[in-house]
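Aim 2, interim progress: modelling of the magnesium ion-bound target.
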Amino acid sequence: MLKLNAVSSGYGDVTILKEIDLDVGGEVFAVLGSNGAGKSTLMKAVAGLLRSQGGTISFEGRDVTRTAPNKLAEMGLAIVPQEGNIFPDLTVRENLSLGALVGTRPRKARMDEVFDLFPDLVPRIDQKAGSLSGGEAQMVAVGRALVQEPRLLLLDEPTTGLSPKYASSLFRKIREIHEQRRIGILLAEQNAVKALEIADRVLVLSLGAIFLNEPAKGIDFDRVRAGYHI
Ligand SMILES: Nc1ncnc2c1ncn2[C@@H]1O[C@H](COP(=O)(O)OP(=O)(O)OP(=O)(O)O)[C@@H](O)[C@H]1O
Ligand SMILES: [Mg+2]
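Predicted structure of the complex, ligand included:
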C-alpha cells in the first residue's frame, strides 16, 4: 500500500530521517521511538508536507515522492498531525465539513458515521473546536480525517495529553476503525505498551534510522525498549 525506498528527509539542510525503507500494508503499523527520534518527520514526509531529500515514496503503486498534500488526500491518504490538527475558531460541524471536501459519498452520511463512532461529539456539534476538551478535540481531528474516506490514515500521537481513560478508548477506536473500514493505519506513538496492544507491525525509530521493524505478535519488549535508550 505504502512503500518507502531509501527515503531521507529533514528540515532545510539538516537530515533527520536517514534512508528509510518501509512497506506498510492494510494493517495497523506503529511507529515508535523516543522524543526527537523522527516519528513526526516520517509522517510529514509521507503526507507530502516535507520534501524528501532522497529516495522514493509510492502509494498504491504510484510514485508520490513529489506529490502535493492535497493531491495525496484525494488519492486516499489522510493525516492527523501531532499539532494544529483542528481549526479552533470553527465549530465541530465546520471542521468535519472541511474534511468532507475530499471524498465522494454523500457528505451527511460520512459525517453521521463520525458521530456514530464518537457519540460524545453529538452534543458539541455547534461548539467551537477551540473550546473542546483535549480528548474531544482529538476526536474532531480524527473525525476530520475519516470523513475523507482514506485508505491509509496517518495518526501522529493522537492520544498525547489525554487521560489514561480517554487514551485507552481512542486506542480501541483506532483498532475498530481499522477493522470496520479495512483501512491501513500508520500510527506514530510514544507509548509502546499501548501501541503494541493494537498494532500488527512495529517500527522503532532511533536517531532518524530504523532500529527495529517486526510483526507485533511475539515481539521482545526489551528490544523495543532498547530502541528508546540509544
Ligand atoms: N521544523 C523543524 N525545523 C528543524 N528541526 C526540526 C523541526 N521539526 C523537528 N525538528 C527536529 O527533527 C528531529 C526529529 O523530530 P520529530 O518531530 O520528527 O520527532 P518525534 O519522534 O516526532 O518526537 P516527539 O515524540 O517528541 O513528537 C528533532 O531533533 C527535532 O528537533
Ligand atoms: Mg512527533
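The beta strands are 2-11, 14-24, 28-32, 52-59, 62-63, 77-80, 152-156, 184-188, 201-206, 209-215. DSSP finds eight helices and ten strands in the chain.
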